[in-house]
User: What shape does this take?
Amino acid sequence: MDLLMQIGILVIAIAFIILMYSIIQTMKVLKSAIEEMRLTIGEVRSDVSRISDDMKETIQHTNEMAIDIKHKLSSLNIVFTAVNDIGQAVQTFTSIAKTSAAQLAAAIERKPAPTKRSSEPNTEKQQPVSNMVIDGIISGLQLWKKMKRI
Assistant: This one.
């Protein structure tokens, strides 16, 4: 039995040695994998640092461009406001001229053809035309005041 016990202990010792050898080999592989991961992480850190510097620069340029665009748009806003005011003034002038022309045409159409000349001027027939002319002058002055404000 003693021999059997020695053989059992020898088998256990050999199994333990094989187990230790495989654990050592696994540890070596893990050590190389960990070393490779450490190098990769170092490279990633340097790449991220370089990229973050580039991103900061890009963001700074983007902010400068946004400020420049905002400034230029505010300048254009003034131009568009002036164009809008001019357009409204022209529209007002066109409306006044159209109304005056329509009233003048209506007054001319209402005026009967002269049949005979009289020595006295007919003020009743001339009054609507003169009123039209006065209305046109007043409208022109109002338009001039509006254009001066622009």
Q: What stands out?
A: The two ends are 122 Å apart (CA to CA). The longest helix spans residues 2-110.
